[in-house]
Design brief:
By secondary structure, the protein is of the alpha/beta class. The chain has a domain of 153 residues: Serine Threonine Protein Phosphatase 5, Tetratricopeptide repeat (Alpha Horseshoe). The chain has eleven helices and six strands. The strands form two sheets. A four-stranded mixed beta sheet has the order 1-4-5-6. The protein starts with a strand and ends in a 6-residue tail after the last helix.
Length: 288
């Protein structure tokens, strides 16, 4: 089910040629939190446009024999990218994966038209709008990125992707404290949200440094909640684990059991487990 920290985070805690084809991307299944965090500066060139463009000066392509080669970014932009967009115009999953791949390579400056196309055709509203917002953020169009995230909030009120996106924008604006608070808020609603968890852990790593970060991840500082047999490895990994009553049916075939099992199943059991945690944290009599 998820992990819960046993204490609050510290307050104010201090992203050719025609014979060549791009490396085949994996299908995109989730929205990005950040992309292109560490980008190279382009090599100097006499062409004014290339000199002003952010990101790498070359793009890695793979030919029909699987051999990687570098081509100038302008050649990729003029000859390769349009072909890829045409090939994927009716395949939003492949288009989304391609955009995520190129974002990671620091090519966001050239991807906005493709991201707008994806947002228009993708039936997965969360994926399409989240990728568009991430690219808008990467190229510095922060107002547009915020507007896209507000649109996503309106269309999918329960989605946590807008919270994560707003956090990344706040961080880009230099407000790491507000950004961390937004990610922590998302994790309170879904402790397993991959983008929120990845972003928060990355920032904690930066804030604490290597030694203190390892200490912060000490399993004794966390509690694990589970409700089925597939949670068994984590029941065994955490000194304090709580199983809601549903897990009782699986205990005969499990070697690692939770530390404590709630009287009630489902949501009621989760509430009982949280009350148990609060009692342990506050040292209330009878909490153990």
């Amino acid at each position: 089910m998820g992990l819960f920290r046993r204490n609050k985070p510290e307050s104010n805690p201090p992203q050719p040629a025609q014979a060549s084809t791009p490396a085949q991307p994996q299908a995109a299944t989730s929205a990005p939190a950040a992309a292109g965090a560490a980008q190279k500066q382009p090599a100097e060139t006499s062409a004014p446009v290339a000199a002003q463009t952010k990101g790498p000066a070359t793009v890695t392509m793979v030919d029909s024999f699987g051999r990687a080669q570098q081509i100038p970014r302008e050649q990729w932009k003029k000859e390769v990218l349009p072909q890829v967009l045409d090939a994927y115009q009716h395949a939003p999953e492949k288009l989304a994966a391609m955009l995520l791949q190129y974002m990671r390579e620091g090519l966001s400056d050239d991807l906005l038209p493709a991201a707008l196309r994806l947002a228009a055709l993708d039936k997965d509203i969360e994926r399409g709008l989240s990728i568009l917002a991430a690219i808008q953020r990467d190229i510095g169009e922060l107002d547009s990125a915020q507007a896209t995230l507000r649109e996503l909030q309106q269309k999918l009120p329960t989605s946590l992707s807008p919270l994560v996106g707003f956090a990344m924008i706040a961080d880009k604006q230099g407000d790491r404290s507000s950004a961390t608070a937004l990610l922590w808020g998302a994790l309170q609603k879904d402790a397993n949200h991959p983008d929120a968890l990845h972003g928060w852990l990355s920032w904690e790593h930066q804030r604490l440094g290597e030694d203190r970060y390892g200490e912060a991840l000490d399993p004794s500082r966390w509690a694990f909640f589970g409700d089925s047999a597939n949670d068994e490895p984590l029941f065994g990994a955490f000194p304090l684990s709580i199983g809601v009553a549903n897990v009782a049916a699986f205990l005969p075939r499990m070697k690692a059991w939770p530390t404590w099992i709630t009287p009630s199943p489902g949501g009621d059991g989760f509430v009982e487990g949280m009350e148990k945690l609060l009692g342990l944290h506050q040292g209330r009599p009878g909490a153990r």
